[in-house]
Amino acid sequence: MSVRVFLVDDHSMFRAGVRAELDSVDGEIEVVGEAGSVGEAVAGIGHLKPDVVLLDVHMPDGGGAEVLRQARPKFPEVVFLALSVSDAAEDVIAVIRAGARGYVTKTISAAELGKAIIRVSEGDAVFSPRLAGFVLDAFADRPGAAPISDPELDLLTPRERDVLRLLARGYAYKEIASELFISVKTVETHVSSVLRKTQLSNRYELSRWASDRRLV
């Protein structure tokens, strides 16, 4: 079966070029839809349920990270692969933290892009060679690596992070309260605060959010 792909980029001519290139990849990839904005992307992903979303990083209304923030909690089975002209570390880390499975630049050949799409659909993480080091520095705690800022995580207090970490590990509110020597009411207050700051709606989404940031 072919991998069903959804294209997200605000340049229609670029989308047309990518579609034409992918249509030539031996029938292994089927482009099922495309979008030029965050809103169109989220609606299209929900309607078509593609296997892989090929995602531009920079768009006028929020870009790839915003698409991931809105779509990934709703459609966890969909895999996202960033495709961007940018090879800046902050762009790479932002979309990987948001949940993209890989990041390749627009200098990639059609054949290599096809391989990257198939690989992420099978569960692999794929990066253009120069970009893999950024991800290792950010996520592997290498000595001397420059810290990567996560604005959403930085909003949480140390105690809120403690509560979130235990919540993501499956602890009940009463168990969290016992572990941290606080009341259940205080735990509930911290959880409500974390939900508000992260703009998430339930414990399941919080657990995924914490796991993505390696808090668990």
TrEMBL record:
The protein's name in its UniProt record: DNA-binding response regulator
All residue ranges annotated as the HTH luxR-type domain in the record: 149-214
Swiss-Prot/TrEMBL GO biological process terms: phosphorelay signal transduction system; regulation of DNA-templated transcription
PANTHER family, A to Z: TWO-COMPONENT RESPONSE REGULATOR
Domain of life from the UniProt record: Bacteria
Species of provenance: Actinokineospora fastidiosa
SUPFAM superfamilies, A to Z: C-terminal effector domain of the bipartite response regulators, CheY-like
Entry keyword set: DNA-binding, Phosphoprotein
PROSITE patterns documented for this protein: HTH_LUXR_1, HTH_LUXR_2, RESPONSE_REGULATORY
Record domain Response regulatory: where: 4-121
A molecular function GO annotation: DNA binding
Residues recorded with modification 4-aspartylphosphate: 56
